[in-house]
Amino acid sequence: MNQVFGTAVLVIATLFCLLTTWRSGTEPNLFAERLGLTVANPGGVNEIRAQYAGFFLVVALLCGASLAGYVSRPVTFTVLIVVFGGLLAGRLVSFLVDGGMTGYGVTIRALYAIDAVGFALALSARLSDSSA
Fold it and tell me: Where are the domains of the chain?
């Protein structure tokens, strides 16, 4: 049962990362706009592709390699914990510094939940796989 849960987490993470890769890589200006950002020049497009498409592609490949048995699951879950935990920590600091979510768009608000769920799933999978 623990293996099934961990496998489901890896599949979900892979799909989420591939979706992020696709959207940011094929439509970087639209992707940035949904985050509340404005791309000023080709360097900005490059940065969206590097920071989002490139980064999330590598995470998706790691998850896929773990599903295929080439990378250990504990390592992959730890990477996911670091990724989603870091994103969530940064969002919580912003929440405190900004005094709430006033002015945040719907995508940023949704990312608070996505990052929290991603962190919780990765941590739960890491702990349950360890006890298997």
Answer: 2-130
